Recover the amino acids of this structure.
């Protein structure tokens, strides 16, 4: 928002919107106009006012306010923070902080390609902004040079969270119309496939290549020509520095599943060399562009500098799960034996190819250590957290830091010591902060591993004795307990997405296999047929099963399969770093939490549904196990300590805010958030 390009107000422009006095017009686009405004305290803001005809579309209006509310969860590090949204004078509007400085498009058009320091700063800053945006469950969808502002403190990304509203407008978006800008949109947007965060990574690659050369990597031309090139042609990325070449090439892959995530881009760029890596990179290499102010204006700071606690954030709307669909995997020809496909390298290594050489190809490997993952994993939930502080040095309580849920959880309640040698376990309901749990299922039996049904009305659990196990179901109020089927002793059961079936581990010809059976009775369907040891099936909301198996390695590894195709193929997600067990799908099916490491000192990890982007959310010498997601997918419960004396902890899915949940002196296990 370059102050030199501000326009005078016309008679038909508003003089006030909501509580903001309008002073000048910043620009105008397909969705509406953007104005420079001031609040009652004199602070400069940018006010985006939606065109009147769009504001009359109820579908668009509902989506606009919904997406604006979601965008408010994105903290202000490397973004222009969304402050509020509303309606006034029959017009819908959204207010963001005002960033004083030219856009990347303006700067490159006027001055040519960026200097090496500024180029690296743009690459780092935009990647950091995408991590914040994606961590809040949003996809920008229209990232381009005009949506990156070059402020005194570094690049800032604007206009996130509103392209989807235009895409959903019922009467102003034609069927098949692509929302985005030619030259910056990904192939899957052009072919109208489902949009995921990978489209922003593609745009990041285009944007960095443009900043380095002044040219779009797919050239110039009509929308049809640019679209065809994006889908079919190889990009021309020019002479990028070696540190960026492989990353840009990887981000511009046609297959979205093969692109790195924004988090992986950021790890590669800053290297995890210190806890203030991102801020240091920008501070040492960034040079204020021409047109930027001589000192950082108040408007470029976080919108809420008075926030004082990362762990007690201001109330925010419950997040709407953002689907990150699993990309279709190539299926091998049918085989009599189950087929296995290894999907990833060890979770701490990602490949980024070097530029192609005529007649042959070279590949470069970026390896991020687990420590580096933890250092830069703080760049999540909308801010770069440095020992609980954001990049401005103030403790950040912005909406990106998820508040701890107060929803009750189902637990195993040990009524007497002795587990696991002697089992004295009931199924209970525990609400964080209470002194004790409420018993749901009690008696002389050993009842463990509660699993909530998708609609929350029932709970499945495992009942065991010295020789056998059974799958039981009970209503959420404790009534109607009944046996469903026999299972392998000590294993868990899991609900199908529609709540009509249970998957479990049983024995067939002396081999553990995964079966599915209708909750109301009927014959079981055998889903696996190989002779490997396997356990811990978990059904996702999208219909896939995840489980661990020793099919290909000495150690347990995690696999997925389509339960509608009994016998396989199975897709292997982990490998190379020892044991991986206890997989748990996130509520939206986009991520899997799991346990990695030896049984006596394991940690909780999270990866995407295709096995990529794995990182640790706990670490240390303690034994961490049994992860379980919160209903909003932003927290994880887990059990820490010896199996004889466990305690339940909770940690954000970003690895921050770890806390003890269960009261002292009470032994609970097998948590499952209701």
């Amino acid at each position: 928002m370059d102050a030199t390009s501000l326009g005078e107000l016309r008679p038909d422009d508003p003089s006030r919107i909501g509580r903001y006095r309008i002073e000048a017009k910043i620009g105008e686009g397909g969705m509406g106009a953007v104005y420079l405004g001031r609040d009652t305290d004199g602070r400069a803001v940018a006010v985006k006012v939606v065109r009147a005809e769009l504001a009359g579309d109820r579908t668009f209006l509902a989506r606009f306010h919904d997406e604006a509310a979601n965008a408010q969860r994105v903290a202000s590090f490397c973004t222009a923070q969304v402050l509020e949204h509303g309606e006034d004078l029959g017009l819908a509007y959204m207010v963001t902080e005002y960033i004083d400085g030219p856009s990347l498009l303006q700067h490159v058009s006027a001055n040519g390609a960026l200097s090496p320091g500024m180029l690296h700063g743009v690459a780092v800053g935009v990647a950091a902004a995408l991590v914040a945006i994606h961590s809040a469950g949003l996809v920008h969808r229209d990232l381009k040079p005009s949506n990156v502002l070059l402020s005194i403190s570094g690049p800032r990304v604007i206009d996130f969270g509103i392209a989807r509203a235009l895409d959903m407008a019922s009467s102003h978006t034609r069927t098949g119309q692509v929302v985005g800008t030619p030259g910056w949109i990904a192939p899957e947007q052009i072919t109208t496939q489902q949009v995921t965060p990978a489209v922003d990574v593609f745009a990041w690659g285009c944007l960095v290549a443009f900043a380095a050369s002044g040219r779009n990597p797919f050239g110039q031309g009509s929308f049809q020509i640019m679209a065809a090139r994006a889908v079919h042609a190889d990009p021309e990325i020019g002479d990028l520095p070696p540190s960026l070449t492989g990353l840009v090439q990887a981000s511009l892959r046609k297959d979205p599943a093969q692109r790195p995530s924004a988090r992986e881009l950021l790890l590669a760029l800053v290297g995890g060399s210190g806890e203030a890596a991102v801020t240091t990179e920008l501070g040492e290499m960034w040079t204020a562009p021409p047109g930027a102010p001589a000192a950082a204006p108040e408007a470029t700071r976080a919108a809420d500098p008075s926030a004082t606690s990362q762990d007690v954030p201001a109330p925010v709307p419950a997040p709407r799960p953002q689907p990150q669909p699993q990309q279709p995997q190539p299926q091998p020809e049918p085989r009599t034996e189950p087929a296995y496909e290894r999907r990833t390298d060890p979770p701490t290594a990602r490949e980024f190819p070097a530029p192609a050489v005529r007649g042959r190809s070279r590949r470069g490997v970026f390896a991020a250590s687990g420590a580096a993952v933890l250092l830069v994993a703080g760049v999540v939930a909308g801010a770069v957290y440095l020992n609980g502080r954001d990049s401005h040095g103030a403790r950040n309580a912005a909406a990106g830091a998820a508040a701890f849920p107060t929803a009750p959880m189902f637990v195993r309640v040990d009524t007497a010591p002795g587990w696991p040698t002697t089992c004295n376990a009931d199924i209970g309901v525990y609400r964080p902060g209470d002194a004790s749990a409420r018993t749901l299922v009690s008696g002389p039996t050993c009842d463990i591993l509660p699993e909530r049904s998708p609609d929350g009305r029932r709970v499945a659990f495992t009942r065991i004795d010295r020789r056998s196990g059974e799958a039981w179901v009970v209503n959420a109020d404790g009534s109607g307990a009944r046996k469903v089927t026999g299972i392998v002793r000590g294993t868990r059961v899991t609900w199908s997405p529609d709540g009509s079936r249970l998957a479990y581990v049983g024995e067939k010809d002396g081999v553990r296999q995964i079966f599915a059976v209708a909750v109301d009775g009927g014959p079981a369907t055998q889903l696996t047929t190989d002779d490997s040891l396997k356990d811990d099936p978990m059904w996702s909301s999208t219909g896939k099963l995840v489980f661990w198996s020793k099919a290909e390695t000495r150690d347990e590894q995690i696999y997925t399969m389509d339960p509608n195709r009994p016998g396989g193929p199975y897709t292997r997600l982990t490998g190379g770093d020892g044991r991986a067990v206890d997989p748990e799908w996130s509520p939206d099916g986009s991520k899997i939490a799991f346990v990695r490491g030896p049984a006596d000192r394991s940690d909780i990890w999270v990866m995407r549904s295709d096995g990529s982007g794995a990182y640790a959310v706990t670490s240390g010498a303690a034994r961490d196990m049994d992860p379980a997601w919160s209903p909003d997918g932003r927290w994880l419960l887990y059990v820490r300590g010896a199996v004889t004396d466990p305690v339940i902890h909770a940690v954000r899915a970003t690895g921050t805010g770890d806390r003890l949940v269960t009261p002292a002196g009470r032994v609970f296990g097998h948590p499952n958030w209701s």
About this structure: Residues 409-673 form a domain with the Neuraminidase fold (CATH 2.120.10.30). Residues 47 and 95 are 5 Å apart (CA to CA). Residues 169-177, 272-276, 294-400 have pLDDT under 50 and may be disordered. The chain has twelve helices and 37 strands.
